[in-house]
Design goal:
This protein has 294 residues and is of the alpha/beta class. It folds into two domains: 85 residues, 3-Layer(aba) Sandwich (Rossmann fold), CATH 3.40.50.10860; 132 residues, 3-Layer(aba) Sandwich (Rossmann fold). Helix content is 40%, strand content 17%. The strands form three sheets. It has a six-stranded parallel beta sheet with strand order 1-11-8-7-5-6. A three-stranded parallel beta sheet has the order 3-2-4, with helices on both faces. Strands 9-10 form a two-stranded antiparallel ribbon. α1 runs parallel beside α10. It binds NADP nicotinamide-adenine-dinucleotide phosphate. NADP nicotinamide-adenine-dinucleotide phosphate binds next to α10.
Length: 294
Amino acid sequence: MTAKIIDGKLIADEIRKEITAETAELKEKHGIVPGLVTILVGENPASVSYVTAKGKTSKELGFHSIQETIPVGSTEEQLLALVAKYNEDPRIHGILVQLPLPKHINEGKVLYAIRPDKDVDAFHPVNLGKLMIGNADFLPCTPAGIQELLVRSGAALEGAEVVVVGRSNIVGKPIANMLLQKAKGANATVTVCHTKTRDTAMHTRRADILIVAAGAPKAVTADMVKEGAYVIDVGVNRIGMTDKGKAKLCGDVDFEPVKEKAAAITPVPGGVGPMTITMLMRNTLKAAKLRISR
Ligand code: NAP
């Protein structure tokens, strides 16, 4: 069997068209333009490219977009003051503080200072708690992207054996919780593996749907995958440079041999990556829409 390639860019484009249409409708009917501010501390090149992409995408979708950059030496108080300013700004519906923050700033303190109704990354404990009880306003972006990829590529989630490799707060734990919910596009039986799991391969071999977010290049090999599985590779590992001087990437799954066994698989790049930004935009639109009803 050669797997169907799940094209994250194509699915993300499809969702962006939906967001553009809903944004235009929100403006026309309610006079509301979704507003997103990205806050960057310092000039880490990877972070600069992420916030630039977020700003560009939000403008393309018709959002009101602000990008704030403050020097790497800024104090925690200065950053908290900026968050407080946008917490009160009625034109802003979503606040994103780009991670990682410099070591002298307490990441948790800053993220928890964002008003939960503007927390479009869904990292605030209030939003994670709502996710856990199946009553989320916003879903964390990467897990939301994974769920959309599965649903839109026809994976049968209900009753499926799902195995998640990785238990981070931003990918592994939330996606496991989301797919466990008594809801459409979920209702799966979920197992989560980590570095203390006794026999990860024993679990992954049982998976109808295998989601790998380990941050370890090619950690999942073909012998660990069941024939006909859906495989979502979240990993982004830099393994050198291309001839054009760009970073050469690989996922957490040994793509070529696994492709010959799986029913469907996401590539790296071009799988989960394009979905993450798109889900951030969808959360911002949702935050703007929630203003109508509250
Ligand atoms: P993380 O915080 O480093 O967590 C990795 C998790 O994987 C940990 O729970 C770790 O277990 C587990 N793990 C590592 N190696 C393992 C192995 N060989 N077997 C079983 N479990 C293993 O990583 P993360 O933030 O979740 O990110 C994971 C990957 O996804 C990274 O490559 C990251 O760059 C990528 N990512 C991509 C996107 C995107 O938009 N495309 C977004 C977020 C992350 P322990 O808990 O026991 O240490």
